[in-house]
Specification:
6-stranded parallel beta sheet, 0% helix, 20 strands, mainly beta
C-alpha cells in the first residue's frame, strides 16, 4: 500500500505479513488497533514494513504489539510512537527495528517492552513491567539521548546493548 496523503487505520486488528505500508509524503500514518484477543499488531516477514518519508508514524492498540523476524517501522524525518494498552506488551525480535532518522522514537507499554533495534535522535521507552533485551544482533538502543522508565527492571536478565550520549533511567 502506498499512501500519498494522511493515512488513518482503525479500529482494526492488524496482522501485517510480507506487506508494505509506505507514505511517500510528509503526512502522518496513524493506526488505532482494537482486538478482542491479546495481540493488536503482528508484523512478520522480511517485507513487513511501515515507513514514512517525512511524516510521523503513530501506532496504538489495546493489546500486545509484536514485531517478529525482520519487521521494520521507520520514519526518515519525524517521530515514531508505539503504544500498547490493556496489559499489552511491545515485543521485538532480535532483528526487528524501529527507527526515526531525524526524530524521536517513543515506546510505551502497560506491560513489558522487549527491544530489538531502536534508533533515533532520542529514544524514550516506558514500561509498566520490565524492559528486556530481545537479542544481540542489533544494538537495542542507538540514540543521542535515551530515557528509560520501568517498574520491574531494565535489562535485568540480559543487559541492554546501547550506543548513546545521555541516559536518564528510572526503575
Amino acid at each position: 500500500i502506498t499512501i500519498t496523503g494522511q493515512a488513518t487505520v482503525g479500529p482494526a486488528f492488524g496482522v501485517i505479513n510480507a506487506s508494505t505500508i509506505r507514505n511517500s509524503g510528509s503526512a502522518s500514518i496513524l493506526m488505532q488497533l482494537i482486538t478482542t484477543g491479546t495481540t493488536a499488531l503482528r508484523m512478520a516477514g522480511s517485507q513487513a514494513l511501515i515507513a514514512s518519508e517525512d511524516g510521523s508514524i503513530s501506532i496504538s492498540g489495546n493489546g500486545t504489539m509484536v514485531l517478529a523476524d525482520n519487521a521494520r517501522i521507520a520514519s526518515e524525518g519525524a517521530e515514531v510512537s508505539i503504544g500498547a494498552t490493556a496489559n499489552g506488551n511491545i515485543v521485538m525480535a532480535d532483528v526487528a527495528s524501529i527507527a526515526s532518522w531525524n526524530g524521536i522514537v517513543t515506546l510505551n507499554a502497560v506491560g513489558d517492552v522487549t527491544l530489538g533495534g531502536v534508533s533515533g535522535t532520542e529514544v524514550r521507552v516506558s514500561s509498566g513491567g520490565a524492559i528486556f533485551d530481545g537479542g544481540d544482533t542489533l544494538a537495542d538502543i542507538a540514540a543521542n539521548r535515551v530515557a528509560l522508565r520501568a517498574n520491574t527492571g531494565i535489562g535485568s536478565s540480559n543487559p541492554l546493548d546501547t550506543a548513546m550520549s545521555v541516559l536518564a533511567a528510572r526503575n
